[in-house]
Structure formats: structure tokens, C-alpha cells
Amino acid sequence: MKMITTTISRTRTGQKAARTVKRRYAHNRIALLFLAPWLVGLVLLTLGPMLTSLYISFTNYTILNPPVWVGLQNYITMFTGDPLFIKSLKVTFTYVGVSVPVKLIFALLVAMLLNRGIRGLGIYRTIYYIPTLLGGSVAIAMLWRKMLGGDGLLNGLLAMIGIKAPDWVANPNYALYSIVLLSVWQFGSSMIIFLAGLKQIPPEYDEAAAVDGAGAVRRFFHITLPILSPVIFFNLVMQLITSFQSFTQAFIISNGSGGPVNSTLMYSLYLYKKGFAFFQMGYASAMAWVLVILIGLFTLLVFRSSKLWVHYEDGGK
Amino acid sequence: MMIGQRSSTAWIVMKHLVISGIAFVMLYPVLWMFGSSFKPGHLIFSEIWFWPSEWNWGNYRSGWEGIQGNPFARFLLNSIVLSLGAVLGNVISCSMAAYAFARLDFRFKAFGFALMLMTIMLPHHVTLIPQYILFNHLEWINTYLPLIVPKWLATDAFFIFLMVQFFRGLPKELDEAATIDGCGPVRIYLRIIVPLAFPALVTTMIFTFLWTWDDFFSQLIYLSDVSKYTVPLGLRLFLDSSSQSDWGPMFAMSVLSLIPCFIIFIVCQKYFVEGIATSGLKG
After folding, report:
1. In Å, how far from its chain's centre is CA B244?
2. Which of A59-63, A72-76, B5-9, B212-216 has the lowest mean pLDDT?
3. Which one of B29, B96, B238 has the shortest CB-CB distance to A34?
4. Whether A139 and B255 lie within 8 Å, measured CB to CB
5. pLDDT per position as a tens digit, A215-273
6. What are phi and psi of B140, to 5 degrees?
7. b (16+ CB within 10 A) / e for A232-254
């Protein structure tokens, strides 16, 4: 087939085209050398394991004994016979559903405060980024646990104004929200992306609208938001994907248990417990695939909805 | 007109007050931890103001002695070795792959590139268990190999993408001139691309370092001997032995564990802001 095309192009467009065809893939061998580490990793650590985990997800596997084929059993058990799995779904949806919008709104508000040629922008940006810089660490998660604990900093402050508050991380009604707060606290990178987006908006737009008598609120909803919508879209997708996989904070704050009363049993945490505490590798693999499908569905949903609310200045082309 | 009015001094002062107020509230937990690390145990939870009424290095001394017979310096050293191995691996393997994608002409390039992009979005949970089984077969559990070797095999495809974008921005005329002078792809990569792509390489190094330094999940799974523990796992030991008096040393070592991130951030700020603003790197 390739020879035929080569001949045709040679006859059709003559010498020049023939040379291009011959010169195509000039670097096959040397490229293989450059790509070798990546290729080995792709096959041995990504594609191979993906296929394996798909297979394992249809088996009972404890690492000690060979896998036993059980068909769809793991997937069926998840949705019909495992209340903890359903609980972990609820916890994760609540976490994602609250933390992502609140974080993005907060990031946008602060970015707008910082946008208008304020002095010391660099310093403020640095300070606001610090939580994002440190927030993923075990150290901060432990601080959080202590800060929101019964005798922690927050309750100390509340006691000063006479409020007797509960132990936030030990109370099943609030424990998850203490993790939400920790996530919202790290709004720095979203804010930096918003700031970069806001810089692209020509101030003349705003000025013209102001001259025409549009108030600040109207200008925000009719100028800033539409122009910024691609950036919001980008931030939303990124935050959605990472929030679904959140692990460390819930693990540290609940000391690995997902408690109290499973109120912080995030999906990743439950998957970890199934795979590495109970060694139900088959079930954990099935959970991993359900997670992929969930994230895929939500991302798709956001992409689909984007036609309704994301405006591209060049008309989307 | 209205915009002009808004720039009155009162407005500007107000704005600065609001912004620095929010900043102070946000940073307060970190300040409080820093202050608490110098407070004796009984004061940590009775004092709300972060500034210690008396400075006391005792927490640092007892935290540094470590836990379960392992000095904290060992956890630090383990983390440093691990992070350096990961940083080197990522920079070398990802820049090689990125060079091929950005500059070389080979078969299945578009397909390979699409495959690479797909792996960026893939949750690591899917490969987690088979990888564990593989490393278990190789008897790599409880060593640093499962944490370092994948970096040398460019599994953090995000950085390949980052570098491809950067390499594509470098003038192609340089490559062409070098080719005329008789340079092959290997020398072009080493002598032209790598030096010119320094900012992209630094961004990769910074984020690989931070992510490895803070990584908890894979270190938790693969390391079991306390003597091999890294800083995140070591810190967690303080939490396990959770008698009230241990919070001081724990805060002290927490502060210590955050210092490397802080220094890198201050020194390399430019790369942070650019890396995040241009490619959406999550810190």
C-alpha cells in the first residue's frame, strides 16, 4: 500500500514529492532511542498494568493465591451488597460538590481583588499561594487535625466569644467539612490561573460599559464572566479530576480509618483499605475502574455543558 | 470616569486592608504551627496568639531525636535521596521523550503523542495494584525502587507534555544550522535543546521535587521498615503515638519538613507563577 502511494505521488507531482516521501520518518531509529525509557514505562507500568487490572477486577485475588475468575461479581457487590462503597461514593460526591465550586468562587473573587493594578501584587500572590504550596503535605494535614480538634485553635477562638463548639474532626456531621475547608484553603493555583486570564481582558471593555452606565455587578456578569469562561472551564476540569482522587488529607485527619462513622471515607481511602489492608485486590481493581468511569463521565458532562456557558472570543473555532 | 473615581486613596487603602486581612487569616494556621513549635506542650493549646510568650528549642531537640529509635535526620535523608532520584529521572527521561515528540520525525508519532496525552489524565489507581504485584514479584517492596524507577521511565507524562510545548517554541533554525554543521539529533538535544529549555527543565525539577517530597500514598504502600521511612511517614508516627506532649515535637518536625518547599518556592518563584499560569500545573 505504501509503495503504491509512493509511486502515485512520484508520478503525480514529480521529483520534489518523491523526495519528501523518502525523507519521511527520517529519524525512526534515533527517535526510538530517545523514546526508549518512555516506551518501556508505557508498556510495563501503564498499558500492561491497565490490562492486568481490568482482568483482576473480574477475579477474587489476594496476592497469596492465584486469581479466581468471578465475572462481574465485584462490580455487582459494589452497588448492591456493600454499604461502605455507597457511603464512600456519597462522601466523595459531597466533597467534590462542595469543595470545587467554593474553591473556584473564592479563587476568582481574590483574583479580581488583586487584578486591578494593585501595588505589591507579587507579594500578595506569593502569600496566597503558600497554602497551595504546603497544603498537600502530611504536616499540614496533621496541623489541620489539631487546629480543628476539640481543644484546638478554632475552638479556642470561639471560646473567646463565648461559643462552646464541638470537636470538628471527631464529629461525623462536620469532619468531612474540615477536609473541604482544607481543600478550599488551597485555592492559590486556581487563583493564579484566573489572574492570568483576567489580564487578558482589555480594560477598555469595562470602561466602555461603565460609561454606558453598567454597574459593577452587571459588568461582572456580562463582561468578566463570559470572557473568563474558558479559564473557569479549565480550572473546573482540573479541580474535578484531582478532587475525585483526594487521599492524604482524609487519611491523616481520620488516622487512616475514614472515621468518625465513615464520614470521611473518601473513595481513594476506601480503595486503599480494600486493596492494602484487606488485600482484596480484585475488588480494589474493580473500584479503580469505576473511578475512571466516574471521572470520565463527569469530565464529559462538563465538556458537553461547556457549549452552553463557555464563550470563546474567536467563536470557538 | 467611574474607574477614575475608584482610584481614590481611601478606596486603595480599603482594598489593601481587605486583601492583607484575608492573607493574614489564611496564613494564621501556618504561623500558629510555627509559633507552637517553640512553645512548651502545656502552652500550645492554651495560647491562641501565634507568637510564643517564651521561646523554647526543646521541641526541636526531642523531635530531632526521632521516634522508635530512628533519628529524624534519617527520615530527612531518606526523603532527600528519594526526591533527588525522582527529580533526575523525570528530567532526563521526560526531556528525551519530549525532544523526540517535538523535533524528530518518526513513524506512529501522532499515535504515540495521543497515547501520551491520554496517560496524563489516567487516575493512578488503575495501574496501582498491578504495579504493586509487579514490584512484589521483583522483590522491590520495602525499597525505593518502586518510587524511583517509574520516574526514570517517564511515567509522569504531564512533564513530557510541558516540555514538548516548550521545545516547540524554540526556533527551529537553530536545529537546522546545527544539522548543516554536522550535528546529529543527540548533539542537538544535548547542546541546543537542553540548555535553551532550562526554564522548562527547572519547572519540572521543582514540581517533581515537591510532589515526591509531599507524596504520601505510594510511600505508604511501598515502604514498611521504619528505618526506610521518609519524612511524611515519619511525621505520621508522631501522630500515632498521640499523647498530648508529643504535639510540640511533631509541630517542630512539621515546620522542618516544610522548610525545603519554602526555600525552593522563594528562590524559584518566577518558575512557579509561569508554570502554573501557562500550563495549569497544580502545586
Report:
1. 31
2. B5-9
3. B96
4. yes
5. 888 888 888 899 999 999 999 999 999 999 999 999 999 988 988 999 999 999 999 99
6. -100, -5
7. bbbbbbbbbbebbbbbbbbbbbb
DSSP-based three-state secondary structure for A68: strand
Sign of the alpha-carbon dihedral angle for B129, B131, B137, B143: negative
Where along chain A do its domains lie?
Answer: 2-56, 77-309
Which site among B134, B153, B190, B262 would you substitute to test the A interface, given the most A Cβ atoms closer than 10 Å to its Cβ?
B153
Q: Cβ contacts (< 8 Å) between A126 and chain B: which residues?
A: 265, 269
Select the residue from B128, B138, B219, B253 to test the A interface by mutation, using most A Cβ atoms within 10 A: B128
Cβ of B137: how many Cβ atoms within 10 Å? 9
Q: Give the residue from chain B lying closest to A248, CA to CA.
A: B216
Residue of A nearest to B252 (CA): A139
Residue B142 backbone class (left: φ over 0; alpha: ψ -120 to 50; beta: rest): left
Determine the distance from the C-alpha atom of residue B156 to the mean position of all C-alpha atoms in its chain, rounded to a whole number.
13
Q: Do B123 and A244 touch (CB under 8 A)?
A: yes
Q: Give whole-number Cα distances, A193 to A5, B87, B143, in Å.
A: 47, 25, 38
Instruction: Answer whether B239 sits within 8 Å of A255, measured CB to CB.
Output: yes
Rounded Cα gap, residues B127 and A288, in angstroms: 9
Are the beta carbons of A288 and B123 closer than 8 angstroms? Answer: yes
**pTM (global) more than 0.95:** no
A195 and chain B in contact, CB less than 8 A: yes
Which residues on adjacent β-strands are paired with residue A68?
Answer: A60
Candidates A138, A183, A283, A293, partner chain B, best to mutate (most B CBs within 10 A): A138
Q: Where are the domains of chain B?
A: 2-64, 72-241
Q: Grid cell 499561594 — which residue?
A: A129
d(CA B104, CA B179): 13
- Test B32 with A133 for CB contact under 8 angstroms: no
Quick count: other Cβ atoms within 10 Å of Cβ B270? 11
Q: Which CATH class is domain A77-309?
A: mainly alpha
Q: Which residues of chain B have pLDDT under 70?
A: 1-7, 241-245, 277-283
Element (H, E) at A59: strand A59-60
Å between B267 CA and nearest CA of chain A: 12
A147 close to B (CB below 8 A): yes
Contacts 24+ apart (CB under 8 A), B100-103: B100/A27, B100/A31, B100/A34, B100/A35, B101/B160, B101/B164, B102/B163, B102/B164, B102/B167, B102/B168, B103/B167, B103/B172, B103/B175, B103/B185, B103/B188, B103/B189, B103/B193
Whether B100 sits inside 8 A of A34 (CB atoms) is: yes
ipTM of the complex: 0.89
Residue A150, pLDDT score = 82
Q: Which fold has domain B72-241?
A: MetI-like fold (1.10.3720)
What is the widest separation between alpha-carbon atoms in chain A?
91
